[in-house]
Each structure stands twice: as structure tokens, then as C-alpha cells.
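Support request from a user on the community tier.

User writes: "When I paste my C-alpha cells into the form, the page sometimes reloads and wipes my input. The last time it worked, I copied everything first. Here is what I submitted, just in case something in the input itself triggers the reload:"
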């Protein structure tokens, strides 16, 4: 018996296998959307997740790496977890056939291009500007912050694609929430102050220690 098994997540194996299945499905969907000329130029495609350290990006990105037969590897990202990747999302974020085929011939094509921003959705959001919230910044890590903007977008995003919120974390960093759901952003509850320990003189904390 593994002496450290009690410290391990009993669901870790299942979650890892689910991620692998989602990555395989994302790759299959991507390959189905490729033009035949692009397919002929591609050796392989890999899909992975990356926790983004840039305060301006989503907490987790899905990365597609395109390995060409006779050209340098290229890659593109999607601001979402791999389980959220479907045909509609890929059609929004994947490079065009012209770009994919050009990359395979060794041509330089910028992706993504700088599209027209479009109009933000006419949707009521749960949080107002200056509301205190808590954001997921990793698979299991949350950080408190303040909403500073509605319908944030970056220059390279597709037309009409917006993130519901931009948030300034208490650390000073700025991030965005890609979805207005509790799994990504939730109301921050201020922790209750810890009660003073009985018998402790809180006015003279230096006297709490014995020498």
C-alpha cells in the first residue's frame, strides 16, 4: 500500500483520464474542420492545457500545436479549458484554411488577425463595477479582487468575442473572467475575524511569548 495514498486526490486518476479524452476529442474535431490541402501538409496535432501566468489572459488556455511535415511547428490558443472546446468554439478561434495551408508551405502569416471588435452581448451580468469577487486563477486556486470593467476584450480576439469581466486582484494584477459562472467567478465573502484567544492580552502581543 502506498503510504502517501491518503494525501492524494482519489479522483485524480479519473480526472486525468477525462482530460485525455477531451483532448482527443478536441484534436479529432480540429482535424475534421481542416481543409484537405491543410491535412496533407500536417504531420500531427497535439492538444494540451496551460495555466496562464499573464494577468491579462484567462486562467486556463487550451493550446493546439500543429506539427507540419516540411515547415516549422505553429500553435494557437483558445481562452477556455479543453472540456469547453467544441466545433463552434474551434470555428471561432482556429486559423483559416489560407493561414494553415500557408504555414505548411513555410509562409509567415499572423494569427490571430486584428478583427473589428463588434458589439458586446446584451446580457445582464451578475456583478457590478466595484463589486468584490473571487476568481479562479488555477485548477484549485482562487484569488479575491474587484470588478473594474464589463465586456473586456483583447485586440486579437474574434469579432463579437468578449469576456464578461475584467478584475483587478488584490495583488494588483489584472485578469479577466471568460464566463459569468460560479466555477470561474463568484461573490467574495469577507472572512470573519478570528476571536481572541482566552487569556491573551491582545494589547501587548509581545508579552505572549515566553523566553
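"...and here is what came back when it finally went through:"
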Amino acid at each position: 500500500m502506498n503510504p502517501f495514498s491518503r494525501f492524494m486526490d482519489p479522483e485524480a486518476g479519473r480526472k486525468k483520464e477525462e482530460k485525455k479524452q477531451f483532448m482527443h476529442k478536441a484534436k479529432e474535431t480540429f482535424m475534421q474542420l481542416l481543409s484537405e490541402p491543410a491535412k496533407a501538409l500536417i504531420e500531427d496535432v497535439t492538444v494540451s492545457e496551460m495555466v496562464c501566468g499573464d494577468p491579462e489572459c484567462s486562467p486556463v488556455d487550451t493550446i493546439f500545436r500543429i506539427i507540419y511535415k516540411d515547415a516549422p511547428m505553429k500553435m494557437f490558443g483558445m481562452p477556455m479549458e479543453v472540456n469547453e472546446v467544441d466545433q463552434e468554439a474551434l470555428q471561432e478561434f482556429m486559423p483559416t484554411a489560407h493561414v494553415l495551408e500557408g504555414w505548411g508551405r513555410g509562409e509567415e502569416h499572423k494569427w490571430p488577425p486584428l478583427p473589428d471588435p463588434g458589439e458586446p452581448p446584451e446580457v445582464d451580468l451578475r456583478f457590478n463595477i466595484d463589486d468584490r469577487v473571487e476568481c479562479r486563477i488555477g485548477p484549485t486556486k482562487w484569488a479575491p479582487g474587484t470588478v473594474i470593467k464589463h465586456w473586456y476584450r483583447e485586440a486579437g480576439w474574434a469579432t463579437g468575442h468578449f469576456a464578461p469581466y475584467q478584475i483587478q486582484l488584490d495583488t494588483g494584477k489584472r485578469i479577466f473572467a471568460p464566463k459569468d459562472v460560479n466555477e470561474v467567478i463568484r461573490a467574495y465573502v469577507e472572512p470573519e475575524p478570528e476571536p481572541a484567544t482566552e487569556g491573551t492580552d491582545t494589547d501587548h502581543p509581545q508579552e505572549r511569548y515566553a523566553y
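Agent notes: The reload is a front-end session timeout and is unrelated to the input. The longest strand covers residues 142-152. Strands lie at 42-51, 60-68, 74-78, 132-136, 142-152, 163-169, 174-177, 185-187. Escalated to web team.
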